[in-house]
Design goal:
Layout: E1 5-8, H1 18-31, H2 39-45, H3 50-57, H4 63-80, H5 91-99, E2 105-110, H6 114-124, E3 132-135, H7 146-155, E4 162-166, H8 169-178, E5 181-185, H9 192-196, E6 202-204, H10 207-214
Parallel strand pairs: 1-2, 1-4, 2-3, 4-5, 5-6
Helix pairs in contact: 1-4, 5-10
Protein name: HAD family hydrolase
GO molecular function: phosphoglycolate phosphatase activity
GO biological process, one term: DNA repair
Length: 216
């Protein structure tokens, strides 16, 4: 294995949830009377913590309205929207290959809330795949590197033994701030040229390709 610890983003990297996030945020914007968010605008903020995403999506929004938007988004994502959110092809099999190595450690670093990530862990029965996880509401949002620092400390792994894998510049810049290796996947949110600016050590167009590369 190239790394002892492999840290994965969630939305757009492991789970194909981008379409659902977009439609739920658009519905929430309509609910509070803000108007229709453009698809590209919503895609751009995927990966950030929800407060940071709302602040970027709605410049100048007041706290009360921001809280209303957050609540409506949460409602639509959990209850009101039935857009499927499957794992990307090869994710379950690929992570099983990584877990087969006793020395390997897998973790999640996500802009989701702890409540949201734990719900998906339960619904997908996949929480046991990972040795640790961090969410944006229990530490700093991406691209600040604190969640990576906390994962390294919790798992007792040096930065040079770890890699961050994600589909946004927020994932890659978070790792870059620590001098951690980073891998881009191009099937998620941000365009390949945008990801390339963060100088990933590898770029994968599909998850199985990533797994093959991690098995150096």
């Amino acid at each position: 294995m190239r790394y002892r610890l492999m840290i994965f983003d969630w939305d757009g990297t492991l789970m194909d949830s981008v379409a659902r996030i977009v439609t739920c945020m658009q519905a929430a914007g309509r609910d509070i009377g803000w108007g229709e968010f453009g698809e590209d605008s919503v895609r751009d903020i995927i990966g950030l913590g929800l407060p940071e995403a709302i602040e970027r999506l709605c410049p100048g929004i007041d706290p009360e309205r921001a809280e209303a938007l957050r609540r409506r988004y949460a409602y639509h994502f959990v209850e009101g929207d039935v857009t499927p959110t499957p794992f990307y092809p090869g994710v379950a099999e690929g992570l099983a290959r990584l877990r087969a190595h006793d020395a390997s450690r897998l973790a999640v670093a996500t802009g989701k809330s702890r409540r949201g990530l734990d719900r998906i862990f339960r619904e997908s029965d996949c929480g046991h795949w990972f040795h640790a996880s961090r969410t944006a509401d229990e530490t700093r949002s991406k691209p600040h590197p604190r969640m990576l620092e906390e994962l390294l400390e919790e798992l007792g792994v040096a930065v040079e033994e770890a890699v961050m894998i994600g589909d946004t510049e927020y994932d890659l810049e978070m790792a870059r701030a620590l001098g951690m290796d980073r891998v881009a996947v191009t099937y998620g949110v941000h365009a390949p040229q945008r990801l390339a600016a963060s100088r990933p050590v590898f770029t994968a167009e599909a998850f199985p390709e990533l797994i093959d590369w991690l098995h150096a």
